[in-house]
Amino acid sequence: MAFDYEKYIRPGKLPHIWCPGCGHGIVMKGLIRAMDSLKLVKEETAIVSGIGCASRLPGYIDCCTLHTAHGRAAAFATGVKMAKPEMNVILVGGDGDGTAIGGNHFIHACRRNINMTYIIMNNYIYGMTGGQFSPCTPTGHKASTTPYGNPDPGFDIAKLAIGAGATFVARGTAFHANQIDKLIAEAIQHKGFSVVEILDDCPTTYGRRNKFKSVIEMMNRLKEVAVPVKAAEKMTAEQLEGKVLTGVLHKVERPEYCEEYAKVIERAGGAK
Amino acid sequence: MSEEKKLPRIEIIEKYCKGCHICVEFCPTKVLEMKGFVVSVKDLEKCIKCMQCELRCPDFAIKVHAE
């Protein structure tokens, strides 16, 4: 039976602003399916975002939403979570918003291990502002500000999150649409800071500058580069060259920030 | 002898479709086609109800109603 996405979408908000073929819509559908599978109550779920194409997502979903300053989704979300620890807080954003302008907030949210879920839609570029290169643009690829190829190496968001101390890190792609909701659901259920990186496509500002003829070509590229973590265990380093691991990459237990902070309040003899 | 196959109903919300071709390309049995700028059903008989089009459509434009 067809899935009823409408019950989670604000009336009259569709069609959305994303370009034809943009994977953000696929990720939004995954998030809605994950919310439905966990039966999240709309009043107890907050979706927080910064600025960018991906950050337009909370505007469409019918629950508590917050559209904040560029890169500051983690800071605002920390405030929401500290004030109301019983809420499910989900952050959404793109690679530029999360790892460049909001890079500092991102690593410190990982370090604190506050119980939130960060969904980063990595489309390798700043889409909304005209296709400037982001910290995730691969070496040699073109953007409006690197017309002769980007000299910088790109960030590996998953490794960055693991290094900064996130306790759950997963990666999916917009092509593997049926995996997105499962990864997001597992991340929401995890107690601690969880990061889900979804590799995405931006046909408008990234694809056309990097000789991708169509959206289909970009989707097929995601299909080719993705290797599930289990399959990668049996592969050699040579075979894994240029590939990206998908699935749950990291999962550990560590004290959660809201609980630890409550102990501090108790020790200080406050908040009775 | 053959039992009549129960066909699904593929609902296309033309107002939402942006013509990105994703559903047409990734349908394993090529049920869909582009008609101008929007998608339309070409051959409903071939549909195997795999729901791939509904799953991948970034624009919430396709719904496959199957029992």
Your description of this structure?
The complex is a heterodimer of chains A (272) and B (67). Chain A has helices spanning 24-37, 73-83, 95-101, 103-112, 157-164, 177-189, 203-207, 215-225, 229-232, 257-267; strands spanning 45-49, 64-67, 88-94, 117-122, 125-126, 132-133, 168-173, 194-199, 226-228, 244-251. By secondary structure, chain A is an alpha/beta fold. Chain A has a single domain (18-268), classed as Rossmann fold, CATH 3.40.50. In chain A, the strands form 2 sheets. In chain A, strands 2-1-3-4-8-7-10-9 form an 8-stranded mixed beta sheet, with helices on both faces. Chain A has a two-stranded antiparallel ribbon with strand order 5-6. In chain A, β7, α6 and β8 form a beta-alpha-beta unit. Chain B is 15% helix and 24% strand. By secondary structure, chain B is of the alpha+beta class. Chain B has a single domain (9-65), classed as Alpha-Beta Plaits (2-Layer Sandwich). In chain B, a hairpin with a 2-residue loop joins β2 and β3. Chain B has a two-stranded antiparallel ribbon with strand order 1-4. A two-stranded antiparallel ribbon of chain B has the order 2-3. Chain B contains 2 helices and 4 strands; from the N terminus they run βαββαβ. Chain B is globular, with a radius of gyration of 12 Å. Chain A binds chain B through residues 1-3, 5, 9, 14-16, 18-26, 29, 177-178, 214-216, 219, and chain B through 11, 15-16, 18-22, 25-26, 54-60, 63-67. Chain B: InterPro entries: 4Fe4S_Fe-S-bd (IPR017896), 4Fe4S_Fe_S_CS (IPR017900). Chain B: GO terms for molecular function: iron-sulfur cluster binding; metal ion binding.
